[in-house]
Write a structure and sequence with these properties.
By secondary structure, the chain is α+β, with helices and mostly antiparallel strands. Helix content is 38%, strand content 19%.
Length: 81
Amino acid sequence: MNKIVLEHYPVEKLPEDLRVGLEAYQTVRVVIEEEANSGQRATPAETVAAIRKFRAENKERENLDAAVAGIRELRNEWDDE
């Protein structure tokens, strides 16, 4: 992940929307970080298509009671340690 840090950056050089509430004569610390997975976002249509594909390929479903029992079992494993 890329990160850029600018120390003592003049507020007057910031875009207008970032200057709100700051005095023009001040300096700030600017940190720019790339968001995790920012280049891998799916559109809503792609997400729905992926869900439909998964459901079509995975017909077997676990019922609620079995899912809760499995989660409790995993939780209890951690409690025993």
